[in-house]
Write a structure and sequence with these properties.
Length: 253
């Protein structure tokens, strides 16, 4: 009976894929760590006779036979780089297949927002499309700047989600990391906005870019660009440390 298990998910009463906490904390070394988290959270079988049965051996068996990993999106309210669900569930599936088989499955993103005009794209193609049309689109950035603190958060989240999808699925390219660095951190207008409205977001963007470079996910970052990012990081770190000291002094009074 257990060989018929095909539907897996979180344990009854729980929710999540386990990927985001690892990525947020940087507490992973390779794709196997991400796969283990995905397995620990999602290897519970559901069927006619079972409801959330712990089924790690069957989960591994099924995932080791996956040749194609597909995620469908049926709306235009968001995209794969403005929600962590995509990188966690789709990316987690891809990471698990990579860890179990040593190679990545074919990866697709289905767009059925318009049921009369369904499109299926290679995942890397979809990431490129979203990156160009939204993530570094000057009009989107201008729109985010009208939202103050929350706009800065969205820029940092986009950086995080691209990094997360790349960690699980190897979908980002060097020019994307460089594009984020130039559009968010080093553009004078955007940088000033982040300094004023959400300096924590700017510091988070810088940390994520450095992590991508340290992990060789951003394989060949230009040295002059990295020098500018490091200088900015030191400035922001000193600024926020001073801000924290002032806050503590104010509380003490």
């Amino acid at each position: 009976r257990t060989s018929l298990y095909r539907i897996f998910g979180s344990a009854p009463g729980s929710y999540g894929a386990g990927i985001l906490p690892l990525i947020d904390e940087g507490n992973w070394q390779d794709v196997a760590d991400l796969a283990r988290a995905y397995e620990a959270w999602g290897a519970f079988a559901y069927g006619k006779a079972e409801y959330g049965v712990d089924a790690i051996p069957e989960f591994r068996s099924r995932f080791a036979s996956i040749a194609v990993a597909v995620k469908n999106q049926d709306n235009r309210e968001h995209d794969i780089l403005d929600s962590d669900d995509y990188l966690q569930y789709h990316g987690g599936m891809i990471a698990s297949v990579r860890a179990l088989t040593g190679q990545a499955p074919r990866q697709y993103h289905g767009d059925s927002a318009d049921p009369s005009h369904v499109k299926v794209r290679d995942l890397k193609e979809e990431v490129r499309r979203v990156f160009r049309t939204r993530a570094v689109n000057p009009k989107w950035i201008e729109g985010m700047m009208r939202h103050g603190y929350k706009g800065g958060f969205e820029m940092a989240a986009t950086t995080d989600y691209l990094f997360g999808y790349d960690a699980t699925s190897e979908v980002a390219e060097d020019w994307m990391y460089e594009g984020l660095a130039r559009a968010y951190a080093l553009d004078p207008v955007v940088q000033q906005f982040l300094r004023e409205k959400n300096p924590w977001a700017l510091l988070g963007i810088l940390k994520r870019l450095f992590e991508a470079a340290d992990r060789k996910m951003w394989e060949s970052p230009p040295e002059d660009l990295m020098a500018n990012l490091r200088q900015l990081y030191w400035e922001m770190d000193a600024y926020l440390e001073e801000w924290r000291d002032l806050r503590m002094e104010a509380r003490a009074k």
